Amino acid sequence: MEQTIGFCQETRPENCGFVLFGATGHLAAGKIIPALFGLCAKNLAPENLYFLFAARTELDRRTFEEHLAAAVSAAGARPSPRELKNFLEKVEYLRADYESDDFYRRLSVRLDELDAKSGLKKKRLFYLATPPAAFKSITEKLKAHSLLFDPRDCGCWSRIIIEKPYGSSLETASALDTGLKETASEAQIYRIDHFTGKETVQNVLALRAANSVFDETWNSGFIDHVQITVFEELGLEGRAGFFEKMGLARDMMSHILQLAAITAMDLPASFKDTDFKAEKRRFFESIPLLDAEAVSRQVVRAQYDGYLGETGVAAGSRAETFLAFKFHVNNDRWRGVPFYVRAGKKTGIKKTKIDLVYKKPEHGIFKTLEIGYPNIFSFEIQPAENMNFSLIAKHPGPKFCLTSRTMDLNYREHREEFASPTDYERLLIDAMAGDQTLFLSAFEVRFMWQFLSPILAAWNDGAANIPLYAYPSGAEGPKEAANLPKQDGRAWL
Ligand SMILES: NC(=O)c1ccc[n+]([C@@H]2O[C@H](COP(=O)([O-])OP(=O)(O)OC[C@H]3O[C@@H](n4cnc5c(N)ncnc54)[C@H](OP(=O)(O)O)[C@@H]3O)[C@@H](O)[C@H]2O)c1
User: Fold this and answer.
1) Model-level pTM greater than 0.70?
2) Fewer Cβ within 10 Å of end Cβ, the chain: N or C?
3) Atom of ligand 1 at shortest distance to CA of 31?
């Protein structure tokens, strides 16, 4: 078994009650229920933990259990009967009526009873897996019924978890945030972007922080440019209603900016949430917003052929399924280094990847040779979990010739890693532990919308006449996206 070296920090979840609103929904079935099951099956859950699931649908116990078991197996788990039983024993269902005080009275009584049964004292997570329109009324009622309280009062705690994306514009997201802040403090709000929970994303930071050979060169002195790719092989997968309203840019921008931050932010003084967030904030504050002219020059939007024929898509829909853009970071580390981003659906391959492309040699005997970019550091985030570093070496043989070689490190090559938490499991552990490091601050969400707003405004401005290009299903976007790095003398990798 691999030994850890020097630094090994464990975030331990506290014993608590977990309340899930919107328990019959897609997010609950696809992500939250499998993650809660996973925490129990992998012995990552705290010893005393109960789940109270709520939704407006009437469900008898049997149907509810079938729903949970189906969600677990649809996520690929193959639980033994005993594992499933252990999980189901922890879960109760409560029919919700989010507008009614009677529901919150029943909820409060039942939580107190479950607390007493589990030897707990008001330590509760409320996961709002409902449409965002319901957030305000739920949190107001929780507050009114003393279910959201200030931890300083009692040595207990109550926390809210919500998912990105919430809102569909800077204004609607700000209004939702203002509504939440009326009932809960920033320290109580846990905003999830599950990309930050991925092992491979956290590994980018670990690698930079612990290996000075990389961090010393992680700047404009050595790096020519950075590429971020978030490709999905799939199309709408039955989510046309959601996607038609959002489009790819709104759906993906949070992920893109989080990947950029983890890659390029200055290293925090510590991995404590306050230090981490302060440094991330400084990074975002160094990104100049794009004006309408820049949007027309350095942002490309497109839609895959056949999108208009998908079930649930409006005739003539202009929802983009592909986005590519270039941005800069105006700080001492990155000034002058372009960041190229592309993200899309139906791109023929599922691939999330960050590439740092090092400069060509400027001195020495090889400076005049056309050898492309000799060093590229690639982080494959999903589905592959690899780090690759390409370099130039001597080709074996009697002649002195150069060749490109790649050093590969498969992040999952060690056997013990099968029990490591998934992204959602990681984030739920952290929320139970009160560690906000991997969650988004209100500032980060606001910045995401500030960055996106001029892009959306330019797209919607008929006078600006920004085209929506087409690309064949299975292609890596339209040819206009290739022009983005090409006009700077570069190419997508
Ligand atoms: N699905 C995903 O993978 C995903 C990914 C990222 C973010 N999100 C975010 O996660 C949240 C939930 O997404 P989802 O896809 O699970 O949504 P959903 O399936 O449309 O809704 C979740 C559940 O909320 C309840 N609900 C519907 N309308 C409601 C209303 N007006 N008031 C209160 N409850 C209502 C429904 O259950 P009952 O009728 O039984 O109460 C429904 O099953 C949203 O904020 C979404 O933006 C989802």
Assistant:
1) yes
2) N
3) 3
